[in-house]
Amino acid sequence: MSVYPYIVAAWLLGAGLYGVMSSRNYVHLIICLTVMQASTYVLLLSVGYVSHGKAPIFADIPTNSTVVDPVVQALTLTDVVVEATVVALLLALVVQANKRFNTVDPDAMTRMRE
Amino acid sequence: MNQLAPLAVAVPLLGAALLVLGHSLVPRIAAELLALGLAAASTVMTTLLLIHVGHGLTIYWFGGWHPREGVAIGIDFAVSAIGAGLAAFVSSLMVLALVFSIRYLDVRHPYYQVMMLTFMAGMVGFCLSGDLFNMFVMFELMSVAAVALVGYKISEGAALEGGLNFAVINTIGAFLFLLGIALIYAHTGALNLGQMGASLRRSGDDRVVVVAFTLIVGALLIKAAVVPFHFWLADAYAVALTPVCLLLAGAMSELGIYGVGQVWFTAFQGALGSHLHVVRAILVGAGLLTALWGGAMALTEDHLKRLLAFVTISFVGVFLIGVGLLSEDGVAGTAVYVLADGFAKALLFACVGILQHRLGKVGQHRLHGRGRSMVATGVLFTAGGLLIATVPPFGPFLGKAMIDDAAIKAGYGFVPPLVALASGLCGAAVLAAGARVFCGWGDPGRDAPDLADEDTEPETREGQTRTPATMFGPALVLLAGAVACGVWSGLPGLAASAAHRFTDFPGYHAAVFGTARHLGSVKSSSPQWFDYLYGAAATALAIVLAGLELWGERGVPGWKRASAAVAAAMGPIRSLHSGRVGDYTAALALGIGVLGVLLAATLV
């Protein structure tokens, strides 16, 4: 098993985290969250990958052939669905913030309340 | 009876879906009654489940996919007495919160009820799940619903900001959780907690296990709001609708702590059990820091809901100490404490809700003396303050005494006085606030500018002259609950046997993969003489500190200088609570890093 997917996952996590920390725009911040989320996809799929494994659909391949792990794929799909909900909700809140404050800068929002 | 476990989650979810579909067809009162009925149904089901579980473990395999030869093929609900008890507690709090909302909120659309039901389903599912990934999904389900409920008043800036902070920090927590799941799945090939535990027991400790444990426990501590992951909580609880706060403070924070216990005793104990002392020291240390931080911050707050949010944080710290002792006694004490303290905190939030309903404000200096006519609410609020100051012999006192005894048994003799100090600080904050609002005591002149009030629209029409029974009734029930936990002598025994089952991995594994059940004898301890001393000391500290808060500047020479020095010392800590999500994320990253480095010590 190659080490590269793990490096990519760690990089995506770190880059996304840095983005969330330093962001001056909520939309950008939420995109950074999805970058962090991408690291979970990469990690999950690389965990279940088997060299030269086929897709785990036994309709047209012999049942004894090597396949990749279907469980992590199911986990990834669930993750996609769950986080799509979260991102949609976050963006809806940002739209409201923009209506009310006329800005999507977290710092400006905090200042305006003071 | 096994079918009750999935039904307790499925019924409220289906009901919520039906409410969305049929909202235009049914009048408002029907939607309210339906939501109430569904929450009550969940309460009944989880209570029956709790009785049925008894000393054992109830397993339900979805779709009838039973395990074969020690390998879990399907997904299970593994219901222990602790899980079922917590689920029953969550759903009964939901019933009270929904009753409370009937007159409190004026909403035409049943979205509120829909989200409350979804929130409850997520929390109940989290308590019952025996599968790590399922725990993650339920964790996210409750987070999404809770975020929507926190940001419900979308016309308010503070609500939006609180909701956004809550969502961003908890979503990062969810990613960490999932990364941890991926790593532990790679290591053990299991998502089922029982199978994972058996595999980890064979493999022993490993770098991957330590990293996965850091990520998963870190995520759960973010949800529980342990320092330094707690910043989002005060922002969110301050702006959430007050009935929602009943649930957030009474139950959601505790679920994070429950999760820590669940993953430790089922899965990670097998691999990291030989480094028990390191893990225990880390968790108890974090718990102590959280307990004292929350207590100190509560004393400096003017906004009543923020004050109670810091009280919540302080008590989460004590729960973490109880579970973090990683012993049967600690878990038993925490179970009693969560129950009793959950009632007490929900009672305080209910009283604040009544204040908001009647007077439309939540800043204690603004409300100074304005609650004079509300004698009954004042009595309830003060009773709540005394309860959280662990006045003997009521519920919170009993729970704390059990945790103290467990701490002493584990060799942490310094824990009880520090926990008593934290309880005293929290109690003082609440009692002083109550005296200001309901009695008009103390100095009204110190006009702390109450920023939040400017921004907070009244949640109900202002100028109500009387408290509706639908608001006062739930508060009374909550008080009765907190008192009963201490008076009912059977509770410690039940908690001890539930904790025995919760911490017994071989029994858990046997129940999940076979039918064998065995249970050794357990005996519960009653509070020692020194527990009463600590309880009395904490209560006295709370009353004295509250008195100093109110009259210290006039009555006690030197107090003014002392309090100014304390305020100056608290300044930097207060300024950390900046409301900026970037800062909170940085604190989160730092906290996870420190946790990881400390846990890495288990490897050497």
Which short descriptors sum up this protein?
heterodimer; A: mainly alpha; Helix Hairpins; B: 604 residues; mainly alpha; 1% strand; globular
Summarize the structure.
The complex is a heterodimer of chains A (114) and B (604). By secondary structure, chain A is mainly α.
Q: Which residues of chain B form runs of ≥5 with pLDDT under 50?
A: 449-455
Radius of gyration of chain A: 19 Å
Average pLDDT for all residues of chain A: 88
Principal-axis shape of chain A equals elongated
Q: How far do the termini of chain B sit from each other?
A: 47 Å
How many structural domains does the protein architecture of chain B include?
2
pLDDT average of chain B, as an integer? Answer: 87
Number of helical regions of chain B: 23
Distance between the termini of chain A: 53 Å
What does this structure look like?
The complex is a heterodimer of chains A (114) and B (604). Chain A has one domain (4-113): Helix Hairpins, CATH 1.10.287. With 114 residues, chain A is mostly helical. Chain A contains four helices and no strands. Chain B is mainly α. Chain B has two domains: 1-129; 130-445 and 472-512 and 527-603, no CATH class. Chain B has 23 helices and two strands. Chain B has helices at residues 4-21, 28-53, 81-104, 111-128, 132-150, 157-188, 193-203, 207-224, 231-239, 242-272, 276-300, 304-324, 328-359, 375-388, 395-409, 415-439, 451-455, 469-487, 491-503, 505-513, 529-555, 559-576, 581-600; strands at 58-61, 76-79. In chain B, helix 14 runs parallel beside helix 18. The longest helix of chain B is centred in the first third of the chain and has 32 residues, at 157-188. The chains are: A mainly alpha (114), B mainly alpha (604). Chain A binds chain B through residues 9, 13, 17, 20-23, 26, 29-30, 33, 36-37, 39-40, 43-44, 47, 71-72, 75, 78-79, 82-83, 85-86, 89-90, 93-94, 96-97, 100-101, 106-107, 109-110, 112-114, and chain B through 133, 137, 140-141, 143-144, 147-148, 151, 154-158, 160-161, 163-164, 167-168, 171-172, 174-175, 178-179, 181-183, 185-186, 191, 451, 455, 578-582, 585-586, 589.
